[in-house]
Every structure is written in C-alpha cells, then in structure tokens.
Specification:
Chain B: Keywords: Amino-acid transport, Cell membrane, Membrane, Transmembrane, Transmembrane helix, Transport. Chain B: This is Branched-chain amino acid ABC transporter permease. Chain B: It is found in: Cell membrane. The complex is a heterodimer of chains A (231) and B (288). By secondary structure, chain A is an alpha/beta fold. Chain A has a single domain, classed as P-loop containing nucleotide triphosphate hydrolases (Rossmann fold), CATH 3.40.50.300. Chain A is built from ten helices and ten strands. In chain A, the strands form two sheets. A six-stranded mixed β-sheet of chain A has the order 6-7-8-3-9-10, sandwiched between helices. In chain A, helix 3 packs parallel to helix 6, helix 4 runs antiparallel to helix 6 and helix 6 runs parallel beside helix 7. Chain A starts with a strand and ends with a helix. In chain B, the strands form two sheets. Chain B has a two-stranded antiparallel sheet. Chain B has a two-stranded antiparallel sheet with strand order 2-3. Chain B contains twelve helices and four strands. In chain B, 76% of the residues lie in helices and 4% in strands. In chain B, a hairpin with a 2-residue loop joins strand 2 and strand 3. In chain B, helix 2 runs antiparallel to helix 3 and helix 10 crosses helix 11. Chain B starts with a helix and ends in a 10-residue tail after the last helix. By secondary structure, chain B is mostly helical. Classes of the chains: A alpha/beta (231), B mainly alpha (288).
Chain lengths: 231, 288
C-alpha cells in the first residue's frame, strides 16, 4: 500500500542537543500507527518536526507532495489535524470558541460528528476551557482535529494524566476516528496501543530502531522489553 | 470639591490618552511578543498628519484627525511589514530596530517640521470649558475620555465578535498552537499593528488638542507612561490597560497637585512597583 506520510532523514537540533538523528518511516493511509519509545527518545519532537513547529532538516512527504519546507499553518491546511501532548487548549476562550478557532476554510465543519462523540462539549459550550477537567480538555483537543476533513490526525499522548475510565473513552473515540482517517499516535500506554494500533514505529535516542505490525511487536515480550523497557 | 472634580476629570483625560497608546502596545506585545519602542512614532505621525492636513490642506478638525489616523496606521503597517516581520523571534534585533526607528523618527520630524512645538489646530468647542459641580473643566477632557471609551468598546467588539479577534485572543495565549490549527498568525500580527497604529495616531491628534501643541519628542515622552500602563495592566490585556491607564492618570494628577511638581511621575513608578510586587503578571495579564 502506498504510504500517506513519508519521513526521511529528519534531523532536529535544539541548542546543543541533536534530538532527531535521521528519523525516517512511512505511515500507511489507513489505521493507527503508534510511535513508541522511552521518555526523551524523540517521539513528540517527530510530530512537531512533521508540522514544522521545530526547525528541522530532511524530507516530509504527504501523499507524494514535499511539505517539509512549508510553514506550520500551510502544512496543517494540507489536511493534518494535531492534538498536542499538553492539549493546546486556549484556557481563556470558551469551549465553543476553541472549536470555532479550529474551523478551516468554508466547511462544512463536522460539528455533528464532534458533538455526537463528545456530547459534553455541546453542554459546556459557554464554559471557559481552562476550567475543564483534563479529560474534557482532551475531548476539545481531539474534537478540534475531527472538525475538519483531515487526511491524517497527529495525536500526542492523548491519555497522559487521565483517569482509567477516561482513558477507555479516549480509546473508543480514537478507534472510531481511525475508521475514517489514519492516525499517527504517540503513546506510552501500551494497553491502548495494543487495542487500537495497527502499525508501530519505535524510536530510540532520535533514530528509528523498529517498524512493523503492532501485534507482532506487542505479542513478543522479549522484543517489547528490549525496545521499550517494559513487557 | 471643585478641585477634586477637576483633578479627577483631568486625570481621566490623561488616562484616556495613555490608554489609546497602551492598548495597541499591549496587543502587539501580547500577540507578537514585540516590545515596540517605535510606537511613539505612530503617535507622532498621527499628530503631525492632523496638523499638516489642517494647516496645509485646510481640513476641518474631524477630517484632519482621520487623515492623521490613516497616516499613522499606514506607517504602522509599513513598519511591521518591512522591518518587524523579518525579525520575529529575534528579540534583541527587534528592540534595536524599534529603538533606532524611534530615534530616527524624532530626527526626521525635526528636520521636516523643526524642533520647536507647533500650535495645534483645535476645534472651537474643545477650547471652551464646562462647569461641573463647581469645577470649570476644559472640554478637551471630555473629548479624550469619549474617544478612549469608543476605542475600548470598538476593540472589545473586534476581539469578542470577529474571527480575527478570536485569533488575536488565542494568539496572546499560545501563538504556536494557533498556527498548528492552520491559521496564518502573521496576518493577525499585521492587523494588530494596524489597530495599534490607528489608536496611537488618534492619541497623537488628541494629545495635540490636550497640550495645545505638537512637538517631535511628544510621542517618546508619552510612550514611557504607556509602557508603565501596559505592565501594570498586564501584557496582552486591553481591559487591564484601560484600568491601569485610569489609575495612572488619576494618581499622577492628584499627587502632582497635592504633593509637588514631579511627585506625580515618581508616584506612577511607585504604583508600578506596588502592583508588580502584589501581582507580578499585572492586574489582568499573563506574567510579564
């Protein structure tokens, strides 16, 4: 299958740190591709490099088009939805304003889908996003990515700091979203990865050390322990 | 009692002037992280544009002010586009360029119009007075206060009711995330420079009415107080700037009258220190 997103020889240097050291992998046009690795391996930086949020060298191709040199807003407008690790919520804006801000172009914008997945966002539309719980803020972050007709979602640690019940809800949403749009997911929660990921990419110290089917990695305790330090 | 009324309205008038300058400064810093020391130039262009169109083109007061505001806005857009835009995220260079531009602007105005203050064309109504609670209050105070209220309401409507306003409010919180939503935040930068330039140019024209003259260095001296207002109000908060401007104007007027000349300015600096000790982020903004 032709990959939708291809990264090649990505390097990111911040100060004296060489964080990404030639990262390259391909993301298929369907399903969930999970980026795994220990803390500080370069997973979040990889997503930021794809979006041009951090300065980088190397190649990023979306559906064959080179987008690596474009500014962030232009890359996103090519059809990439981004839910960052810290959720990127605008605390002083209301929930509705947070969603409205994410509208791109003339639409149609898929409020029906967002409110169907997260009815709470409709009920809390006038509430300031900064007063929401962590789980509700995550709903806003994911809801914003679903509002537009994106070609791929980049989701960074969506379950970080959430209660187990909320983690299950987030997993349900991602699983459902993945039926419509491919997801590049950075995640430390292996249970979630087992449940929803089709493919995995393992990054260690800024380089890709493993790519393949999620099931084959996660069903091999020795390999999982070797690559991720956990089983 | 009449002294208190006169001082209060004069303080509010001065505060209105500070607010008109500070509102743009605050928005520009809040969104674009630019400490714009050239903001006084927009004010001076507005003042001289008003003076020039009135004395050379024979414009009545309101069209002359409109001419000055358009000139100030155009200057702000040009400065942002040509000089600031290549320097976003390069703070030191920005400071050097805007300070240099401020100094060069004063020198250019001196070369073009002379160093001496020029008598400013004031509408007849503004030169009169109105008696309120026994105080004889110059009418120009009401003009300043009215203009500031209109600008405050207009900026709030822009920020609360328009998509660009939404982008500006979000950008003040987290500019990177705004771009990660597919929004070209640079367009919003230009827009806040235009709004800030327009408000500063209006302040320049109204400062001419208030002081009765216009001089090349007027923008620079008013800018210092506007920066204090921005810091007290909180970087990026227009409402905070409005409250801070009223506080600064009133404190300056009352202490100058009841203490001694010069104490007014010192008391403003003391107010700044007290506010920063109590609320390091200012009255309403993010941490400075």
């Amino acid at each position: 299958m032709t990959p939708l997103l291809e990264l090649a020889d990505l390097h990111v240097r911040i100060g004296s740190s060489h964080i990404l050291q030639g990262v390259g992998f391909a993301v298929p046009a369907t399903g969930v591709t999970a980026v795994l690795g220990r803390n500080g391996a370069g997973k979040t930086t990889t997503l930021k490099a794809v979006l041009g949020i951090v300065p980088k060298t190397g190649s990023v191709r979306l559906d064959g088009e080179e987008i690596g040199a474009l500014p962030t807003h232009a890359i996103v407008r090519r059809g990439l939805g981004y839910a960052p690790e810290d959720r990127g919520i605008f605390a002083g804006l209301t929930v509705t304003e947070n969603l409205r801000l994410a509208e791109r172009g003339r639409g149609p914008h898929r409020y029906d889908l967002v409110y169907e997945m997260f009815p709470e966002l409709k009920q809390r539309g006038a509430q300031r996003a900064g007063t929401l719980s962590g789980g509700q803020q995550q709903m806003v972050a994911i809801g914003r990515t679903l509002l537009n007709d994106n070609r791929m979602l980049l989701v960074d640690e969506p379950t970080k700091g959430l209660a187990p019940k909320i983690v299950t809800e987030v997993a349900d949403v991602l699983e459902r979203a993945a039926r419509e749009v491919p997801i590049l997911l950075v995640e430390q929660n292996l249970a979630l990865v087992r449940r929803i990921a089709d493919h995995v990419v393992v990054i260690e110290q800024g380089t890709v050390v493993h790519t393949g089917e999620a099931a084959s990695l996660l069903s091999d305790p020795d390999l999982t322990r070797e690559l991720l330090g956990v089983a | 009692m009449s002294n208190v009324v006169l001082l209060a309205l004069t303080g509010l008038g001065l505060g209105a002037l500070y607010f008109l300058i500070a509102s743009g400064l605050s928005l520009i810093f809040g969104l674009a992280d630019v400490l714009n020391f050239a903001h006084g130039l927009f004010l001076a262009v507005g003042a001289y544009g008003t003076w020039w169109s009135s004395t050379h083109l024979g414009f009545p007061f309101v069209p002359a002010v409109a001419f000055g505001v358009v000139a100030g806005t155009a200057t702000a857009v040009l400065v942002e586009t040509l000089l600031i835009r290549p320097l976003y995220r390069r703070t030191i260079e920005q400071v050097l360029v805007t300070v240099g531009l401020s100094l060069a602007g004063v020198a250019l105005l001196q070369a073009a119009f002379g160093a001496d203050p020029l008598t400013f064309p004031r509408p007849e109504w503004a030169t009169g007075t109105t008696r309120i609670l026994g105080a004889i209050v110059p009418n120009d105070r009401f003009l300043l206060i009215g203009a500031a209220v209109v600008v405050l309401v207009a900026i709030q409507v822009f920020l609360r009711r328009t998509r660009f306003g939404l982008i500006v409010r979000a950008g003040v919180e987290d500019r990177t995330m705004v771009t990660a939503l597919g929004i070209n935040v640079r367009t919003a930068f230009t827009l806040v420079f235009a709004i800030g330039g327009a408000a500063a140019a209006l302040a320049g024209a109204l400062a001419g009415v208030y002081f009765g003259n216009v001089s090349p260095g007027q923008g620079t001296s008013l800018l210092i107080f506007a920066f204090i207002v921005v810091v007290i109000g909180g970087m990026g908060s227009v409402t905070g700037s409005a409250v801070a401007a009223v506080l600064v104007g009133l404190v300056q007027q009352f202490t100058s009258f009841y203490a001694a000349a010069g104490v007014g300015e010192a008391s403003v600096v003391l107010l700044l220190a007290v506010v920063l000790l109590a609320r390091p982020g200012g009255l309403a903004g993010r941490a400075a």
